[in-house]
Amino acid sequence: MNAQSPDPALADLLASRPSLQTDVRDGLMFEGVPLHVIAAAVGTPCWITGAGTLRRRADSLRAAFEARHLPVSFHFAVKSQDHQATLTMLHQCGYGADIVSGGEMKRALAAGIPAANIVFSGVGKTDAELRMAVEQDIAQVNVESVEELYRLDQIAGSMGRVARAALRVNPDVDANTHDKISTGRAGDKFGIEHARAVSLYSEASGLRSIKLVGLAVHLGSQMLTAQPFRLGYQRLADMVREIRSFGGIVESIDCGGGLGIRYRDETAPAPEMLAGVIAETLGDLDVRLSVEPGRWLSAPTGILLSRVIETKAGNPEFVVIDAAMNDLMRPALYDSWHGILPVAPQHFTAPVSPRDVVGPVCESSDIFARDRALPDLERGDLVALLDTGAYGAVMSSTYNSRPFATQVMVDDHRWQIIRERQTVEELIAAESVPDWIKPRNA
Ligand SMILES: *Cc1c(COP(=O)(O)O)cnc(C)c1O
């Protein structure tokens, strides 16, 4: 895992995360709430979402685009963090939703996000999901293939409706990101090849139940430089001109998400970078624009709080914590690096040495960190895994019969449980045993 440069020191991790503070008595605090208080009250592992952090980021992203006077609407990528409290807050901040399933559509609607502010992306939408999108009259369906476009036309037609759609284009741009989160290269499964998209645009004008409103793109995730955004959006701009030269009407461009954050020591771009690139590449096309940030908004809002179950002396020295890959899957799935901070006040001044931080699940990939410089943690000590707000709780499973962890929201010295810990009894209660395999003499 990313062993090129030394890991940032604990003090550096803290200094670059303004929502975290340390207190000489209470140790690590998130938005003014001591983490040991939450652990004592609700147990561990526990997800903590910072409402203030989310609001601040939502506002600063908006401000970056407003400074450019761009006609932009904002759609939060629900898949990164789908809690009702999160969606409700983002709705209040003026955000709509970018969804990838019927389930996410229901979540967005339940949080009060109007259908007119919902866009539906995703490479495999079922008939039922498309029907629901037409029924709810959402802002647009980003279709990912010729086949899907025709299927949507047929479904909308059978309902006597007209569906607004955008063509999701694969611009064949390398996002320079991890292979498993790249989406805009020719071999990736997403989108319509860009040459095909231009011809499809004129073809689609013959479809009775589709109104093509524009193009959509999503290049990848955790993108840290301007260049791939610039290349991708330039391609889109060229396509818009080409489509218009054939008489096509392009009203809107959906720019996707993908803006990266600092997990370790990356130089993460500010949203002003993205706003600038969009202004320069798409600003003079006279189209409505939209952006779909997920990770940039949600990752820094989350902490996964965990307690040390056991330490295992040796080389390497293992610290076994009570969170695992079933809770936070990213390290096992993408080799991702998450900052780990101790919670007790004395640990911030103690000497550090390398340790492997692992979960208790019976898989070798259940490892959160290798050779991580940490103080001498003991059984019972608390640790906080940082920047786990995106693609964290949403990816949890119950592997090893480990129920979904508690979720808590903090906000300016307040905190509240926003999802109770699931119980093993609930897991079992959802299962049934067919009569024919029940013991005969039971
Ligand atoms: C996942 C996704 C996003 C959000 O990506 P982030 O990297 O989290 O910003 C936006 N749009 C689409 C279509 C996506 O699939």
UniProtKB/TrEMBL annotation:
Q: Which InterPro entries match?
A: Ala_racemase/Decarboxylase_C, DAP_deCOOHase_LysA, De-COase2_C, De-COase2_CS, De-COase2_N, Orn/DAP/Arg_de-COase, PLP-binding_barrel
Sites where N6-(pyridoxal phosphate)lysine occurs are at 79
Can you say what this protein is called? Diaminopimelate decarboxylase
In this chain the Orn/DAP/Arg decarboxylase 2 C-terminal domain maps to 300-389
Question: What lineage is this protein's organism placed in?
Answer: Bacteria, Pseudomonadati, Pseudomonadota, Alphaproteobacteria, Acetobacterales
Q: Where does substrate bind?
A: 295, 330, 334, 363, 391
Q: Which UniProt keywords apply?
A: Amino-acid biosynthesis, Decarboxylase, Lyase, Lysine biosynthesis, Pyridoxal phosphate
Ranges for domain Orn/DAP/Arg decarboxylase 2 N-terminal: 53-299
